[in-house]
Amino acid sequence: MKAHRSIALVFGLGILAVVTGGWSPFSTPSDTAQPTQQKVPPPSREVVQYSFAPIVRKAAPAVVNVYVRSRVQAFNSPFADDPWFRRFFGREFGEGFGQPSERVLSSLGSGVIISADGLVVTNTHVVKARGDTEIRIALSDKREFDAKVIALDEKTDIAVLKIENGDGRFPYLDYEDSDSLEVGDLVLAIGNPFGVGQTVTSGIVSALSRSEISTSDSQVFIQTDAAINPGNSGGALVDMSGRLVGINTMIFSKTGGSVGIGFAIPSNLVKVYAESAASGRKVERPWLGAKLEAVSRDVAEGLGLERVAGAVVTRISDKGPADLAGLEPGDVITRVDGIEVTDARSVYYRLTTKGVGQSVMLSVIRKGKPVDVKVALLAPPQAGKDDIKNLSGPHPLDGARVSNILPSLADEMNLDDTDGVVVLSIRNGSVAQSLGFRPGDQLMQIQGQSVDTVARLESTLSARQRLWQISVKRGGRLLQLQVPG
Predict the structure, then answer these.
(1) Residues 235 and 261: beta-carbon distance below 8 Å
(2) Between these two residues, 107 and 84, which has the higher pLDDT value?
(3) DSSP annotation of 270
(4) CA 198 to CA 60: how far, in whole Å?
(5) Which of 223, 284, 306, 218 minimizes the C-alpha distance to 258?
(6) 89-100 burial by CB neighbour count: b if 16+ within 10 A, else e?
(7) 125 carries an active-site annotation
(8) Which of 211, 233, 267, 471 is catalytic?
(9) Which of 77, 107, 117, 125 is catalytic?
(10) Dihedrals phi, psi of 458, to nearest 5 degrees
């Protein structure tokens, strides 16, 4: 192992210094011939017995294999196996046609027991499947149990399972504060890569607060060079005290195998979701009431910032927590409770782990001067009776159910911003469905007029038009539609 080689080298140099007597890293070259280096055995047995084994013995029993089997209905054509049809129509030819049949889909991942009564955390992508799903948990001592999903969150990729029919005496891991990690700290990754069985790999913390690869606005990752491969997802990242610092979730690879760039969800975020699941409540992400964007180089130069880091406030919601605290557009948030933040996602992550009902101190650069702003973390406002409407009438959106974009809804539907009005659902057979509108579409403009509220949208749709011009934001792209009236 790399760690062992480094230790051996350090001790080897120490021995060499004793044997040669005059060696120093600050010696200068001379014409005098240097004595030949002597190879000597280690001076004691203890020197060569450094091992991670005690840590593994403590942590490994709480890391489990997660087996998922899903039964789904498929439709097979009698010509599905005909090579001529496959040649012209592709390998998927036959699916969706012919007689229904049952297919069994299997997947494998890892998980971590976090309580004696059998609460297990893993990744959502490990356990989420279509159709009827069976989940089986296999412990390192070869015992197996059925399990059920009690909570999952796609945005953070965290799922919480409960082992059924257990004895309430399962081995489990304690959490470590992931904020205590430093780059260079030794860590172990434990999981079941490629289904070969429980495997332990070692490495260091390569980086902290990696947010560039995240699709969630409240997620950051621990980066490690400990080998993580397919099947490791949901497994444990532990520190040198055998405590849980992260849940392994993904790798960066062009081949599908480990290249030394793996990512884990920090234990502080895992703990928030696991504790909420155990208590039977859903995690509420705090509402800041401000739109944040990462500080670009141009923004940093324009604001006279010394570093290209932080989150710039671009918009403040009226009477929201940020507004009431005195935050202003143009402010650059550099720290949350004294911890540096690199971008907007880092800020949202800190707020999420802090939790609703708490308060945070934001360190802000305002017009070149440092300012501290204390913000109360409130739950996002819920939809009222006038926020959601079912649309009907002689217009392109007949059959669409729409809503004002409240913070909680934007979070639930993974919307980038709260501009416009969002489509919640489409009635089958409706005009809106025939025109291709989809749930999640953000209606931005109609006939060149902004539709920032449901009330304004209804008013705009009430006037008959010979040609409807509609601007829709879908998946970050702005689409321009023209529909005859």
Answers:
(1) no
(2) 107
(3) H
(4) 8
(5) 223
(6) eeeebbeeeeee
(7) yes
(8) 233
(9) 125
(10) -60, -40
Q: Which of 115, 157, 346, 471 is catalytic?
A: 157
pLDDT in tens, 296-316: 888 888 878 888 888 999 888
For residue 158, pLDDT beyond 60: yes
3-state secondary structure (DSSP) of residue 203: strand
| pLDDT value at residue 304 | 80
**For position 422, what pLDDT does the model report?**
93
Whether 122 contacts 159, CB under 8 Å? yes
For residue 212, what pLDDT is reported? 67
Measured CA to CA, the distance from residue 226 to residue 178 in angstroms comes to 17
Ordered structural domains, the chain, with CATH:
2-20+34-50 (no CATH), 59-163 (2.40.10.10), 178-278 (2.40.10.10), 290-376 (2.30.42.10), 388-484 (2.30.42.10)
> Is residue 4 annotated as a catalytic residue, yes or no?
no
**253 has catalytic annotation:** no
Beta bridge partners of 472: 443, 479
10 pLDDT band, cuts 50/70/90, is very low
Q: Which two tokens stand for residue 213?
A: 């690869």
Q: What is the pTM of this model?
A: 0.72
Q: What is the rounded distance in angstroms from the CA atom of residue 215 to the CA atom of residue 124?
A: 14
CA distance 440 to 412: 10
- The token pair at 327 is 């935050």
**Burial label, 46 (beta-carbon count in 10 A; 0-12, 13-18, 19+):** exposed
Q: In terms of Cα–Cα distance, which of 156, 148, 162 is closest to 124?
A: 156
Q: What is the mean pLDDT of residues 368-380?
A: 91
